[in-house]
Design a protein that fits this description.
It contains six helices and five strands; from the N terminus they run αααβββααββα. With 149 residues, the chain is of the alpha+beta class. Strands 1-2-3-4-5 form a five-stranded mixed beta sheet. The model has no long low-confidence stretch (mean pLDDT 85).
Length: 149
């Protein structure tokens, strides 16, 4: 997921017309209206789906609506790593995924800025490979502020 975010930074730089000056790019992104940022982030990410995150997780769809970006992720419950574990530990997996996603996005400077200062909301919907809903959650300003403390 971290490499996905870094690649988004590069794609945003192309869209913003920057000359590989990372600090200048970050400042330009931070000044962007949140709705525009959400659209660009979703469009650039969506152009790369499906994105294999790890052995069991794949980003299958990404959309933007107003100040939010929604990620649809699929978990392969039939994978050897998951055999017999989902039924007993579904709440554990939900907690782990939330912690993983929120820590990654809240620790990326420009994403943290967009979430905390501009109200960007990141939504995550997890399904199995048969598209059955598993769980969902939202990462927002409060989540990033709690990580800072």
């Amino acid at each position: 997921m971290k490499s996905l975010i870094l690649s988004m930074l590069l794609l945003l730089s192309l869209n913003a017309g920057m000359n590989n000056n990372e600090e200048e790019l970050k400042e330009k992104i931070k000044a962007m209206p949140v709705e525009k940022f959400a659209r660009i982030l979703a469009n650039k990410t969506a152009s790369a789906v499906p994105i294999k995150i790890d052995a069991i997780t794949t980003v299958t769809k990404v959309i933007a609506l107003e100040n939010s970006v929604t990620y649809f992720k699929s978990i392969d419950l039939n994978h050897e790593m998951m055999k017999g574990k989902w039924e007993n530990k579904s709440e554990y997996f939900k907690t782990v995924m939330f912690d993983q996603d929120s820590k990654i996005v809240c620790r990326v400077d420009f994403l943290n800025h967009m979430i905390v200062n501009k109200g960007l909301v990141l939504k995550y919907y997890y399904t199995d490979t048969e598209h059955r809903p598993l769980f969902s959650y939202t990462v927002n300003k409060q989540d990033c502020l709690e990580l800072e403390n």
